[in-house]
Amino acid sequence: MVILDGGLATHLEALGADLRDELWSAKVLLENPAVIRQAHLDYFAAGAEVATTASYQASIPAFVRRGLSPAEAEDLILLSVHLAVEARDAHGSGTVAASVGPYGAYLANGAEYTGDYDLDEDGLTDWHRERWHILAGSEADLLACETIPSYTEARALKRLLAETPEMRAWVSFSCRDGERINDGTPLKEAAALFAGDPQVIAVGVNCTAPRHILSLIGQIKGKPAMVYPNSGELWDAASHSWLGLADPMEFGQAAAEWNAAGSAFVGGCCRTTPEHIRQIRAHLTGEPTG
Fold first, then answer.
1. Which residues hold Zn(2+) (predicted)?
2. Is 175 annotated as a binding residue?
3. Can you give the CATH number for the domain in which 28 is found?
4. Whether the model pTM is above 0.85
5. How many domains does the chain have?
6. Residue 145, marked binder
7. Residue 290 lies in a domain
8. Domain ranges, residue 260
9. In a domain, 263, yes or no
């Protein structure tokens, strides 16, 4: 069993970062990288064994669109990994997973929640390739392909895995219900893409409502299952607020159920905090955290 971290952007906001930008958490790489290191440290202190880097929305095209040169963009992507490595080393243990966010995150138009893309498999492979090789050649221990909403995008990432045979990865899909990823493909079919791939350490689900997780675990065969759902809250456009806050203790209790159902990796995604991770560790191991 491995305990993952929680929502990096959520904790960055709690530490004072303003993420109202299409770069989202990658914006902080430009403005205040030290706070990213602190966020990783806080998750390690809460009991996480993995630091997932701030590269989810950090891509060469996104930074170039902001006015940086390709070389400056590459430096920022590598910085996201270095900050996590520094936090890991200061903590004394842990794994650094370099986040590979979906093409939809770059589009910043909601496509990461639908998989409705304007690129085919070849186009997606080409779009991901430069960042993929930067991260695969970094200090990261593995690549975290996460919030993948599209079967076609998953096929593109599988092609890139073959280009970096020395690099391990996990692949985690975002799902619309208890059976299908966001583009409508059955998770069972999407997960089967990676069942025989020796580079893939786990296949899972993230940025998905907790109520779907138990059902989705049952769809993953051939690889250890991984789950790190969001808090289950819903955005209320009328009040401009989140409704239905998931209590960290309840989240920890649910995590114990997910682990018992077969998930070997458990953590949190959007709107989860170090306290959620602290509760996961308490419910899964009974160990106190510092």
1. 207, 269-270
2. no
3. 3.20.20.330
4. yes
5. 1
6. no
7. no
8. 2-285
9. yes
